[in-house]
């Protein structure tokens, strides 16, 4: 059995699944979570790397769901937390049912904050632990036709910056924010965005994004924007008027703009 322990959320597919593979290859025992039964098939794959893997299907948009994850950890000291679970949602805000946009807020913000508060409390007490939180370059951009999602990632990007400062004198505990751009995952299908340009265009490889995030976390870096094109986009976003950014995002995310070449 490995001597180190990692919790990875949103690990049934995409970036989270790739992070779990990296952690397992690195010798970490795993507790992986997602809100779908596919997490158990993913866990079977992770066990091929020769580490102990426990899996739980739980809704991390709910306080009770996070509590179930914490109970499954069994009080074990967490060396690495990859808080990757997230929810996307496309189309116009006024057309989005309350339960759908609230699920985005509750997953991306409430559940993430609660999980971080619980596990970081123990990490700070032990003065040991590494945290990777999946934000997004979307947090820099007013997200026309993706307004709640982009707003939730703006919160995460800001929140982790603030939390990092609060804990700057706690040696041994680091918080890294992974900020990918559009990535080849189930995200856009689940968000109902396959009729948009961003939903159908070429995207970054999830394994590459996960590796960049993992390496940055292990180095204790504050942020990592994965990919040169995304780095450029993030830099430009800092000096571009919000109205211009919103219009640019509209061209990517407005329904009916799908790129028919892909």
TrEMBL record:
GO terms for molecular function: oxidoreductase activity. Coiled coil: none annotated. It holds the Pfam family adh_short. GO terms for cellular component: membrane. Keywords: Oxidoreductase. Belongs to the short-chain dehydrogenases/reductases (SDR) family. This is Short-subunit dehydrogenase. It comes from Sphingobium subterraneum.
